[in-house]
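User: When convenient, might I ask for sequence and structure tokens for a protein?

AI:
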Amino acid sequence: MTIGELSNMNDGGPGARMLTVVRQGKSLGAARDLEFGLELLARARNGEIGPTLRLYQPAPTVAFGQRDTRLPGFEAAAEACRANGFEPLVRRAGGRAAAYHEGTLVVDHLEPDPDAIAGSKTRFGYFGELFANALRSVGVQAAVGEIPGEYCPGEFSVHGTHPAGGHQVKLVGTAQRVVAGGWLFSSVIVVENSPPIRKVLVESYAALGLDWDPATAGAVDDLVPGVDVAAVEDALLATYAEQATLRSAAFSSLGA
């Protein structure tokens, strides 16, 4: 399946669509970054923007799932995040806590879609393979699927295999927001500097009383030394360009 087919599978439109790529130069702040994605989704559903890819490196954040907030250790987990320099937030999507910082790349793919819910399951598999292909192009032994003991477990997590130890490391987590008339598929690629992410997850998951394997938390550069965020962004856009026509636009065009 191509991006064009993914975009058009519900409306019967022909061929690959134009995809506007917007690079957000700096974080707007942990909470504002998440809010702005939802604002863009509202604009997509109303036809104010077309298919859009927003790329940015976020401020240090731990995004908790709704279920996490109902655990008795949630306040302690949030405090552990703050003590480690990460802002605790609660996302509207499901799942468990996930951590990210400036060494990660957030990819928000937004599309207007008259029947957005129909393709929701297909998107998870499609984007999982797209991200795995991009990571393979920078030397990662990447695959799609949940690995035992991973944080914020998901059926379509993208993971890599460590060339030395042979253990699997989660590299990409994905989430989706679907509304009448459009969808937002948001992905976080952990590229550099995994120790702070691992540390804050160890402490926050301990406070929540959740079991997981800290060895599953890592970054692309743990598996392929020297790979940075810029290299992964280039690889991702090259993968997208094999299936869609890309055009760049200034971040200011989104009116943040």
